[in-house]
Amino acid sequence: MTPERWQQVKEVLDPVLVLKPDERAAFLDRACATDSSLRRDVEELLNADQEAGTEFLNEPQPLPLTLAPESEGDSSEVADAWLGRRVGSYKVVEQIGVGGMGEVYRAFRADDQYRKEVALKVVRSGQDSGFVISRFKNERQILAGLDHPNIARLHDGGTTPENTPYFVMELIEGEPIDRYCGQHELTVTQRLKLFLQVCSAVQYAHQRLIIHRDLKPSNILVTSNGTPKLLDFGIAKILDAEAVTGQVESTLTIFRALTPGYASPEQIRGEAITTASDVYSLGVVLFELLTGQHPYRKPNSTPQEIARIVCEVEVEKPSSAAHRLETWSSHDLGDPEGFRSVGRHPDHPAEKLSKRLHGDLDNIILMALRKEPQRRYASVEQFAEDIRRHLENLPVLARKDTVGYRTSKFVARHRAGVAGAVIVAITILAGLAVTLHEARIARSQQARAERRFNDVRKLANSLIFEIHDSIETMPAATATRKLLLERALEYLDSLASESSGDISLQRELAAAYLRIGSLQGSTLDASLGQTDAALLSTKKAVVIREAVARANPNNVADQLSLAIARQSLARMLDSASQPGARQQAEEALKITEPLLKLSNPDLEVRVEAAHEYELLSDIQGGEGDQTGSVESMKKSLAMMQALLKGNPQDRKLQRGTGVDYVKVANALSDLGSRSEALQFYPPGLEIFESLAKDPNDARARRELALATVFHGNTMLMNGDGAAALTAHQRTIALIEPLAKIDPQNATLQLDLAGAYVTVGRTDVYMGQYAEGQQWLRRGIQLYDAVRARNPGDQQALHFSGTAEIWVAEALARTGKTQSSLEIYRNGIKQVESLRDPDPDARSEVSTGYVRLGQALAKLGRKEDAASAYRKALDISEPATKAKPPNTAALYAAADAYFAMGELSRMEASGSPATAMRSRRSWNDAHDWYAKSADAWKKISNPGVVTPSALPCGNPAMVARAITQCDAALAKLQSVSNR
């Protein structure tokens, strides 16, 4: 077909393509009334268009398009004809690929020189026109001149006796690059590094004046060892060959061999092809690798529509496309297998991936995909260099070079050095801070000072939210994080002094103080264990947010931010055993509950309300209000379940719902409803098991461990020591790897110490005293190490004290009663020294005095024992009379009353005494036992240990003692009546 004839065809083809299929015949009747051959040419192209379908996007269309496709039977017969055949020195084994113009077979060398598997490519049956054979030989010549580790190598070539050309090349066993990235769940950084190897291969070809022209994922295979290999130079173009002959492939302007889904606009339009075309195709491949989506592929698009979009429509930003990734289905992509092959990024959720692509990567890809060749990267090497600079956090060519941009890249690229990054960043901040100070003094430099002030503001936030987060999960990074946060806090304080009247800065400062407080002393996440410093930072955040909320009473976001700050402060006060926790929690609810009544409240409002009810439940439980604790916790769980139902893939909501399930179970267990409690643990554990499958989610593994230990504690209270021990041993297996990798992480060290102690006290309960003491002492050593770094840590002090009481209990039960006394006293002293201990902690002190008294009584020191019991009652009795009574205090009082009864019974049945004195002692014993029985009656479903997992008696023992008293008194009465 001549260019003139093509112009005639095009004038008819263009308008007919936009018509519906049933309207085309009438149009052709009119347009081609005098030229039947013109109509035939147009109809053949329309048929080719229909047969191509959406696969037009993925497969190159060979010249000419009008060739009829072979049937499956023909293809199979041709393949069978080659199998087992000897071609040169090689024997064909099986067909492994079919392309537009060639077929590829697996073969092996069969001339007894050596055995080697290869790929043998021949011209496809039915495609043996002069043009195709020329193209085939062209590809063979191209491969002969290429020797690169990322390009499939040519081994041999020749012509069969039937004059069919063939060539033998390296056999690549691998997966297309997009499928490989998905199956191996490569991160964005890993995908970029893999892509750089592909760029190296393409640039190597360009240096040898070869343009590939068909770059796409299926032509880039990645081997099992992670090496990408570039294949299929079937439609490649040799620039120097054209320079010699002076002939351009004019036929390709009519029927162009290309893959429209990856072809550049100039390829589709039939214009001159340069290396910029390969840059464009690489841009499409990179877009797919990083977003899981094709930049142009839309449902139900025709090939002509795709071609038009490629030439006319600007590409969406990759970060915007990635943001929708979780909501796109495989059907949306028009390629069900393609979407699944891409897989999920470990950088998900979508918001995180979008943030990762925003900025440099958006600009790099969009520059590669510009419509005009001259506006793209000048070479593949320049394209690759920008990617390398991005990975090294250097400024890139694709983004405007500003001072702020260069500064942010300068800070960010030193993250890998961790300590070095901190020193460099701090040095920059120090210089900027000095500049700011001088600017306040020098009025003439006011404009410059304002710019530096904004730089300090941005970099201070970068220290807290970017650099810190980038090293947070790195092994042994706690010391560096501590230094980093200390320096960031200094600059925050300096900014705070300048924030008056600047609402936006005040919002930033409050968020930064709240974040630092969490990193200093959170009990929910990895922290530095700096309780007092955390409280101070959090209080600063509350003060600032109060001022902002007062200035903007109708701003929902500011009101919600204040509620979040108050909730955070309440949680820290509660964990630090300091007063004011309930007040702060209730103040937060006073803000949030009205926001819930607004029409369509934001997700953040509903989540915050759920967190506040959860926190209120914790505080109520600590105050002894077990019923109120259960009610608040169930309210929080109901809210989280509703939120999760509407957002089932949201990991934060999954985590929050799991926490609530476990906390409802804990509250029910404390209330005595352990059978119901054991129904709430499994769904919570199931959620954490699912979340913990993500190897990057250390928090989920920690929460799974905590849920497991709570489950074990409830089973222990039910008397199932074996099941409890299994659960507690699993807790160690979950926490120990996390804690050992970062020994300065106070939260994880406390968790590990607690895991050791729970196994130890369960061993002691089951009579395994030696093993129990070993675990208990290991836990105490860890508690002591945390306290050495942070003497104000109330949790370590508290839990270490209760562990000491269990060690003493093990000694007392093995006959080492004298040795147990000092340890009992030490444990009691630690718990007594807590700042403002809650009712549960005071009840633990009371229980400690009971166990100490029993040891003293065992040694015959009855007066000292009685003194210990009275101390126990002085502490516990007020809490038992509260409304509602504290459950832990009821356990302690019941045991103390019983112990006093035991002293009276010992006196009654001991040395000979008068009948009157003996009767008085038995009556005293009976009274004490009766008080103990009354206390037990107020405990719903008593456990075999206290809610704090300390040893205790039981109602059956008290009932037997009362029966014995009654019998003794009856006997005395009988003797008296004689």
Ordered list of secondary-structure elements with their pairings:
Elements: H1 3-17, H2 21-31, H3 36-52, H4 72-82, E1 86-87, E2 90-98, E3 102-109, E4 117-123, H5 130-144, E5 154-159, E6 165-170, E7 174-176, H6 177-183, H7 188-207, E8 210-211, E9 220-223, E10 228-230, E11 237-238, H8 239-245, H9 265-269, H10 275-291, H11 303-312, H12 318-323, H13 336-342, H14 350-357, H15 360-368, H16 380-391, H17 403-412, H18 419-441, H19 446-471, H20 478-496, H21 503-521, H22 531-551, H23 556-575, H24 581-596, H25 603-622, H26 626-646, H27 651-671, H28 674-691, H29 698-717, H30 721-741, H31 746-765, H32 769-789, H33 794-813, H34 817-832, H35 839-858, H36 862-880, H37 887-908, H38 915-937, H39 955-977
Antiparallel strand pairs: 1-2, 2-3, 3-4, 4-6, 5-6, 7-9, 8-11, 9-10
Helix pairs in contact: 1-3, 6-13, 7-10, 7-16, 10-15, 15-16, 17-19, 18-19, 18-20, 19-20, 19-21, 20-21, 21-22, 21-23, 22-23, 23-24, 23-25, 24-25, 25-26, 25-27, 26-27, 27-28, 27-29, 28-29, 29-30, 29-31, 30-31, 31-32, 31-33, 32-33, 33-34, 33-35, 34-35, 35-36, 35-37, 36-37, 37-38, 38-39
